[in-house]
Amino acid sequence: xxxxxxxxxxxxxxxxxxxxxxxxxxxxxxxxxxxxxxxxxxxxxxxxxxxxxxxxxxxxxxxxxxxxxxxxxxxxxxxxxxxxxxxxxxxxxxxxxxxxxxxxxxxxxxxxxxxxxxxxxxxxxxxxxxxxxxxxxxxxxxxxxxxxxxxxxxxxxxxxxxxxxxxxxxxxxxxxxxxxxxxxxxxxxxxxxxxxxxxxxxxxxxxxxxxxxxxxxxxxxxxxxxxxxxxxxxxxxxxxxxxxxxxxxxxxxxxxxxxxxxxxxxxxxxxxxxxxxxxxxxxxxxxxxxxxxxxxxxxxxxxxxxxxxxxxxxxxxxxxxxxxxxxxxxxxxxxxxxxxxxxxxxxxxxxxxxxxxxxxxxxxxxxxxxxxxxxxxxxxxxxxxxxxxxxxxxxxxxxxxxxxxxxxxxxxxxxxxxxxxxxxxxxxxxxxxxxxxxxxxxxxxxxxxxxxxxxxxxxxxxxxxxxxxxxxxxxxxxxxxxxxxxxxxxxxxxxxxxxxxxxxxxxxxxxxxxxxxxxxxxxxxxxxxxxxxxxxxxxxxxxxx
Amino acid sequence: xxxxxxxxxxxxxxxxxxxxxxxxxxxxxxxxxxxxxxxxxxxxxxxxxxxxxxxxxxxxxxxxxxxxxxxxxxxxxxxxxxxxxxxxxx
Lengths: 545, 90
Known about the structure:
The structure holds 2 protein chains of 2 kinds.
Chain A (H helix, E strand, L loop, with lengths): L4 E4 L1 E4 L2 E8 L16 H28 L3 H14 L2 H14 L3 H16 L3 H21 L13 E5 L4 H6 L5 E6 L7 H9 L3 E3 L11 E5 L4 E4 L3 H24 L11 E6 L16 E5 L13 H15 L4 E4 L27 H7 L1 H14 L5 E5 L5 H20 L9 E6 L2 H5 L1 H7 L2 E5 H9 L9 H5 L3 H16 L3 E5 L9 H7 L3 E5 L3 H13 L5
Parallel strand pairs in A: 3-4, 4-5, 5-6, 9-10, 9-16, 10-11, 11-12, 12-13, 13-14, 14-15, 15-16
Antiparallel strand pairs in A: 1-8, 2-6, 3-7, 7-8
Chain B lengths: L1 E7 L8 H11 L5 E6 L2 E4 L3 H6 L7 E7 L3 H13 L7
Antiparallel strand pairs in B: 1-4, 2-3, 2-4
């Protein structure tokens, strides 16, 4: 038996799966097949009939998606149908068959190579070639009299391919495909979106040749790891981890009685890093911006932003979303967020336990005061909120509040008419503030749980360290229980609690958070649709208990 | 009737598959011939693959040429769709 090997890739979709690798056949670099002139007519007929069958197939899939409420997938299929009906494409294929006197399979190979070359310059467009590749595979599969090419999936298949085509996932139910592994593929590809919304673990950026001759595979979508030829010990470890997670969810759900939530009373906010991000979604889709990581404005800058510059940036975003909340997190510098500007401040051997977040800002008050003034001035539409990062002690909040009052008066003295009060929120991302959140909640208007840092500090596990990442990403009971208690204190104090960080966009946890009483999740632009969709579905099916 | 206008791509991801699908669908009811010119490449706008092949990113300027009986209406609809980012994001 071959030795166990751990491959590190990129996590595309979370979850753990153990199963048998099913490798897609290598793209058959078949020899060029020439056809005699008298066969050309038949070859074109063969192509058209395959095209028709493919169309019907897609239409059927589309209807199925719609009836399953998978609108995202239906939209993707709409585009695919348009491609199949593209007159330019069919003309090109047909004329190529005529001119080159080669069969369709050959012609397709040539065309795909051309497209690949053409789109390869641009990463976003490149991902679209995958769609086309999937379509051509489908058409070609209908050309074969016997469907010998179809890959057969059994109960615990893990699909391995150089590239995963959306159709590969769409057509196979989750019970057959347990996980996905690919060489190529990014988080924004259609396949990735579908995998996430269906909860199929997916790891990309793996050298799939290494998987060709192996059978058993573990896919750890939480950590972006693939284990080939796992030892019995590893399998046991992952088996129990998987079981543990499942039981955890079940237990937690049993314990918590279902709250009377009416439909749509959940806020799904977007996280943005740069003002530009706001262009990535339509306003109707979000309930506001739950986290604007303002420190990203400083990346690559040689100087801190002037008050005026900041006012312009904040105002523009606030204006765009107008009647919805816009939460600006004060510059969160330090820890793993080291910027050129403040490099010298983080020479300590343990930056994640050093001067950062509000600690940094209180030490560099000129920066803090400038940002506070900018935020107050930008709050023309009365929708901006201020969020304080990495609070560990109530004194920090009290000091900050004093500074806000001072700067407010400062602005009024400077002749600005300021009437709107800015809501103040406290990040709950270290254990101390989480444990004492009942005290913090009295001093602020809302709380925001930063699940990434909270997990890291609670579990003493660095999310960037492969050795301990499993701890960090396995939704430890301690983290979930603490989140639950913060939500409870928020409800008691009648103040909003926003859940941010990676756990907020974990599809498996949405229901749990809602049942814990959470009313607001803030997730990355990529996950908004999925989370909204899940949140709605949860609400539609209230449980009896 | 022939109308020529220049239009800017406002979609963040450029003329990717979703906007291209919208264009092709929009033109299904038009009776005019519609061509896009971008970086000296001229394509038939009824072909989704041709639109994608332009690899037109955000802020690229595309020249639209519409020729036919309903050229003006078709152009208006196209301009409006580009302007509204094909309903994608605002």
